[in-house]
Request: fold
Amino acid sequence: MIVGIDLGTTHSLIGIYADDGPRLFPNPLGDLLTPSVVGVDDDGHVLVGQAARDRMVSHPQQAVAAFKRWMGTDRETRLGRRTFRPEELSALVLRALVADAEAALGGRVAEAVISVPAYFSDAQRKATRAAGELAGIRVERLINEPTAAALAYGLQERPDGSRFLVFDLGGGTFDVSVLEMFEGVVEVHASAGDNFLGGEDFLDALEAACLAGLGLAPDALDAPQRGQLRRRLETAKRALSSEEEVRVECRLGERAIDWRIDQQRFAHLVEPLLQRMRAPLERAMRDARLQPEQLDEIVLVGGASRMPLVARLVSRMFGRLPLRHVHPDQAIALGACVAAGMKARDRRLEEMVLTDVCPYTLGTEVARRDEQGRPQSGFFHPIIQRNSVVPTSREDTFWPVQPGQSGIVLQVYQGESPLVANNIKLGELKVPVDPRLPPEQNAVDVRFTYDVNGVLQVEAAVRATGKRHELVLERNPGLLDPRQIRERLAALAELKVHPRAKQENVALLARAERLYEEHLHAREQLQQWIARFRAALETQDELLIREHRREFGAALDTLEPA
Amino acid sequence: MSPLEWFGLGGDADERALKRAYAQRLRRTRPEDDPEGFQQLHAMYQRALAQCRRNPALAPASAGDGGGNGGPAGDAPPAAAAAAPPRADGAAPRMPAAMAGTDLRPPAVRFDLDGFCTQAIDRAASGDADALGRWLQARPEFWSLQLKTEAGRALVQRLYRERPPMPAACLDAILRFFDLHHATAGHDPLALQRLERHMQLAWELQPAHRAALCARLRPMPTVRTLDRQLALLEAPFRWSRVIALAVFPARIAMFVNTLTRGHPEDLPERFDRRAIRFWLDAADRTRITRARLLMGGIRWLAATLLGALLGCAIAWLDADPAEAGRLALGLGAVGFTMGLCWLAWMAYQPLDRWHGLPEHVAVRWPWLNLLLVPLLCGLGLGVNALLPHSVLALVVPVVAAWLAIRRCWRRFPSQRRPHAAIFRVAPFLIYPLARVLFVDADDVRGGFAYWQILTVPMLAWGLDLWFQRAHLRVRSRTAAQAD
Reply:
């Protein structure tokens, strides 16, 4: 049984390709969307999801969110007594999701298809695979998020012979893909994106404007207060999609906050972010060699695409209103489920074939001769152009720069800049050549092969001797090797996690603690409720607990109408 | 077999039929199961698509498909799309009929490309890259993809043609906005670097930006000094001035090099290349140039005359005319000898470089290069036979020894760079060196020790030959191949 997982910056979902099509599984709280937040509680238990998200407000040091943005880096986050790499945090979210799926399916889940932003780099993809391994599941395939959304959309609408663009603005990443569907073939023509552009950036802009508007320095608020403010602003941001003006009113410690923002001002604030969306859109269209009028549909997915500003940007660029038949929050997860079904060779998906592209350019460093004939090094020579259909294999020939050179160092880079200094180095391959031959007789044929799973293989053949050299870039420096993964896996196994049955109680307590921080006037009341609920938990009487939980939840709802 | 036939289709098949055939084959050749087969299939599909679209009879059926621009993202680089000529109807793209009434897109008026380029260049000249970027972003016409591509191409072409003064940041903003700053945009990165340098220098040389230039040219003290220096460079060509300034050429050459970041060819037209070339040549110690010879000759003449004059003055103060003449002559002779030494030194440097060239570099006169040291030793023997005890007979082997040691050191295989090896060789050199340097003067003049002196250059030469033995073989081999 292969599950499909959308591991998002702000929310994650899990599902399966069931008998009646893709089906998503709810978490213990009954929601399909599990916040991608990890926290620890006072006795060292790991919290994932809504409980951790509430914990972020009450105890900002003990919860962490948006770690998808650090995937592929060495950044470590301290939570409680130990530090976590981004892969481990993602693994904890994956474990929670898999537990939900196992509870719903009643069996073990060992394989998954995980969606990643189309513009994720090599290192980021590998980190995502490592996260899967750390969560104890085998990642059968990584599918690009816009492609997944297209699969969901394609299955639902069955548009035949159409070209469309998927605009995916999620919590932390922005992706664009241009696709074509015909005769059951889903063909991706081009993908482009920005890994650091998403709903969170809109919230950052709003927060900065709010602090400036209130005359506060960015560090004037302590962490819990900031967490509260962000939560309020997040609500305000959502409200701005439908209301002309929104008022943010709350108490942060001693301060009473009262701030207003209208749609026009918001549009002005986020103008730079909207401008940043233009470049990937244009690039994807150019690489697909299409004019806007040649597109049949434009599909918006991702929670942040709900903002009317985004729809306006798209209409402005493409001269038409975007289409939104798919559920923006669930489309990617549903698509991941379809991809899982395809991977499992589901009979009903037999007709479907997916071809995807490599979203970035891969190449090597070369030296070029300037006008004086002097060699200048540091230039990037593309071998696999971005948006080539994968699997792909390209060959190019290189010669030594100087006579008497005893070898060629093939530095493998990924990126778009003409200077390698601005690109990401993936590895290097040293190819010895005969220094006694003149350079023009010392050709080295280099072949780059990029497969469906994103593994790059570099082969070099010295023409004079026929000798072959090979480099397989499976693991990047700075990422975990298999031994480290085993160690971390063992370490993660030692973490205490609340049993699934208790999750609801834990989440309720976390919510009450957050409300305790937010509502000064009701603190005594809340304290009483919390104490009473804890007492009920002590009894371990399941019936009593359920009764109390219902009352407690209802009481909290009076403080915070949904 | 034509690509369409490969798919089992007739030459008049349309795109729909091709896609159906492709889809069928694709189900048997899935990319994840059969990578090689898929690559072949996909390449064929791209070619068949292109064939389909070229077919004029079918043109109306696929009119919307990019005007024969080839298949969607495939084998040809994306850059090709940017480099393809613009379509004939260069205005904003057509609107779908359903949207024609709404005001989402600017009206399709002909866009004034030239006017836009001029405006953009004017704005860039102000030097504020952020403002330029905002101005570009705010232009409503560029929401049209096609127009944007076209405008970007026109602007960059114009920049190449006119090279207007523009700071690098503004060029970067332009390239960024038009998405031309990436490796597959089809620009030669070296040409782009050259353009950037050229425009940046022209911008910095504008009088309004002196302070910024001054800040870059540390330790240039003040704007006034900088102005003076630039005025010197810019002044019209006059031999007298050029030569007067070249008396101390190093300073002016350094100024030119820091000003142009080592690329004097970037200077705008108004700077006289002849004068700048002359100063740079005069300061260049690695080559024998006319400028260097001329300046050396002038300095030498001046020094000799000055010496003679000084002698005369001293003698005149001593009131001894006869002595004065001799002193003047003596000082003049010293100046003359100094000049000769300088000439010899200047001639020695290229000789040393030529002689020390690596084996695989195409050297002029390869046999002379190889056998120079033994030849010099032979010459030494000859001179010693003709003119025993002469200074010349001693100078020749010393020069030969020095050349041989330098050659051996410079050509040493780069992996095992010299130091360790030199120390290994040194003990063998100590004895002959000591014989040469500290030998009893009588022994040397006695002539019988002359061959001992020659052992030093021959030893170093032989050592070099040993290290380079691999290359010697190759040279004969490549020579054979050439035959």
